[in-house]
Amino acid sequence: MEIYKNIQEMKSYLKEMRKEGKKIGFVPTMGYLHEGHLSLIRRAAVENDLVVVSIFVNPRQFGPGEDFERYPRNIEQDIRLSQEAGANVLFIPGINEMYPEGFNTYVEVKQLTETLCGKSRPGHFLGVTTVVNKLFHIVNPDRAYFGQKDAQQVIVIQRMVKDLNMDVEVVVCPIVREADGLAMSSRNVYLNSEERGQAIVLFHALNMAKERIEQGERDAMRLKKQIEMMIQQQPLANIDYVSIVDGENLEEVKEINHKVLIALAVKFGTTRLIDNMIVEV
Ligand SMILES: Nc1ncnc2c1ncn2[C@@H]1O[C@H](COP(=O)(O)OP(=O)(O)OP(=O)(O)O)[C@@H](O)[C@H]1O
Ligand SMILES: CC(C)(CO)[C@@H](O)C(=O)[O-]
Ligand code: BAL
């Protein structure tokens, strides 16, 4: 596996690969890889000739007081796991490589970034779209792989790709869960055993909501209340948001009569977890 820290060196290497006709699949990550990330890498390896994985904990998508400094990192383990999953090139730039002095260009998707996580984390998606845009320019992939776990991120990136006529196919991969249903996340390591035990309520609440819709529930407000009540029964849970939105434009729905996204963010102690489920009626 090739490992690059330098943008120009990796660009030259990938240019050669492209000249040989190789199709490039790209998996952007913030590292501390788990089965969720590995599922993206494995899929990219099946669908492309060359798989590039980036590991960059992007400071510009963390707000002040968020967990940038303590975000979990284990580069040796990431190298081993990504190689085993089928990565051919690892891109691990330093902060100065990505944001040299004088850096001053941002890419912003409006509206879609103003709800859900965008509301609770002002500036977060500006950081995400800016860094993903940069990474797309550096890697120039044919396909880029993102997890449905970050549902809003997927929709925002699809919008950016469309609006800016970018030649990359965005491939969305299903949420990978722990055996008990908790969505895998690098941040799960922050949870103590009590918090970890209670966090399973998120998956249970999403399943409950799906069942209610399947049984005929159409009132989004009533369902949202039921989800909130179920989560609040866990003493360590602190709800950031529970939302039932249109699966395409992320606008809050009143009546559930088409494809909806049930999305939530809940804190357990200091750890903020997100999860979601798409339900079609
Ligand atoms: N459980 C999962 N299932 C599928 N894809 C996932 C999962 N967790 C993360 N991903 C995807 O992996 C990519 C990189 O995500 P990232 O490095 O932020 O990991 P993460 O575990 O989601 O971290 P965190 O939850 O701490 O933000 C994103 O496209 C994300 O959606
Ligand atoms: C896409 C991403 C790698 C950009 O930093 C990040 O937001 C993530 O890991 O989902
Ligand atoms: N997966 C989204 C990265 C973040 O929480 O900053």
TrEMBL record:
Residues 206-233 form a coiled coil. Keywords: ATP-binding, Coiled coil, Cytoplasm, Ligase, Nucleotide-binding, Pantothenate biosynthesis. CDD domains: PanC. Its main location: cytoplasm. Its EC number is 6.3.2.1. It comes from the Bacteria. (R)-pantoate binds at Q61, Q153. It catalyses: (R)-pantoate + beta-alanine + ATP = (R)-pantothenate + AMP + diphosphate + H(+). One of its GO terms (biological process) is pantothenate biosynthetic process. The active site is at H37 (proton donor). ATP binds at residues 30-37, 147-150, 176, 184-187. The keyword Ligase applies. GO terms for cellular component: cytosol. The keyword Cell wall biogenesis/degradation does not apply. It is found in: Cytoplasm. Belongs to the pantothenate synthetase family. Catalyzes the condensation of pantoate with beta-alanine in an ATP-dependent reaction via a pantoyl-adenylate intermediate. This is Pantothenate synthetase. It comes from Tepidibacillus decaturensis.
